[in-house]
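Why show two proteins at once? Because comparison is the fastest way to build intuition. When a single record is shown, students tend to memorize it. When two are placed side by side, the eye starts asking what differs. So, the first record is below.
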Amino acid sequence: MKASAKKPTRMHIRKKDVVQVMVGKEKGKTGKVLRLIPAKARVVVEKLNIVKRHSKAQGTKPGGIVEKESSLAISNVLLYCDKCGKGVRSGVKASDKGPKRFCKKCKTEFK
């Protein structure tokens, strides 16, 4: 196995989940998950961790400075519970319709 090849991590967060950032310059902010990167255990959150990238003009595309979201480590975000009003740990319970995620504090199910 190559040193750069890494086994994908099991993600406790899914695309379109609302998460709260727990550490770093974006601490306390919430946003929707746009993309998951399981191989690197990272997530991209809407309008958070904005970085500037310089792009060269290519054909009809103009060059310039582009602002875009950068990824965050999955360990630095928690699912956001509307009832609790903050990021919380989540659990999984079995039901007749399949596994359901729930808030460990108030026991409400996530969508």
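Second record. Ask yourself what differs from the first in the token line.
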Amino acid sequence: MSSDDRSWHTSAHPELRDGPPWVMQEMIEAQPGLAEPIAAAPGAETIATAIRQAAEAGDPLVIVGCGTSEHGALAVAALLDEALRSAGFKARVECRQSLDAALDPRTGGFCLGVSHDGTTRATIHALEAARESGAVTATIGVRADSPTALGADHVFVTPLRDRSWCHTVAYSSAILAGAAIARELSAGDAVDGAAILAGALAQRERIDQLAAHIHGASRILAVGLGADLTTARELALKIEEGARIPATALQLESLLHGHLAGCDADATGLVLFASDARSGARGSYRLQSAARAAERIGIPTVAIGAEAALAGLPASVERLVVPPSEGAELLGALLTGAVSLQLLTLSLAQLVGSNRDLIRREQRPYREAAAEAETRADW
């Protein structure tokens, strides 16, 4: 919780609350209302045109971001990649961490930066480097006047600013924007994103039970394959930001190649995601292998995913079956994963008693660490 001295708190910080409802919770609950305005927002058509032109020329297609926005960029890249394939293009979309892209930009093509507030310096540098290399640039974010947006050729503005620093709206907004651009590329049918998000929110009580199952672990592993790895990566970040529990995201197969040696029954919790239908039978088999291995060690395990993928898991695994999103399997996996990971974080944070909105900035050492990492403008 916050200290008695609140002189450090300014309007630049999220609202400082001493208990629920947390701002993060309000942001999570607002997400179904984002689907319609983002689907109708301007920007998708011009960005899709630029992507199509680069794909036709065989030029690089790159999506960049940092933190939650990097995970949003991974989701956007997956959605655009799927749309291009369905439209008959052989081009593939590459997601890169912003600083990597700034240091070694691709030549020409198209580069889209995901940055919610549009002020992340590494993403600014990545877009500058892409522009200098001859790329057409675009951004997804909440501000039309941000540094990233002002320097871009094309801008997609999302409607709601995330008021918690444990970002949720920032992530789902990027996914929904990516879906809007993907529909322009593939001429696909509109998807009821609001219904997908609302359906995931309705699972709050069950997710509270999953959180209780892994509560007490001093480290949490988040594991997935394909789009579910993106979900796992975002969960690991949210748990560390919001619940302040060390967390690591691992690709499903990677978990089984040595990482379990560092796990203990009384110290580790495991979260498995299995909503991406592209993983198929082979992915389901390895999911079962991971769950059985964890059971042998005694690691408390929860799984969130499609019914078919979870059917063969050991009885010791607590699970949440998510309904299929007919005709929009990838988008459905990403959106249900987004809300599920956010609710799981919210529940874990409630169990440990942390203020999830400030990501520990109410404590001086963490404010100073953030200032060192985020506010320096000399690089």
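One difference worth noting in the second protein: Residues 164 and 357 are 5 Å apart (CA to CA).
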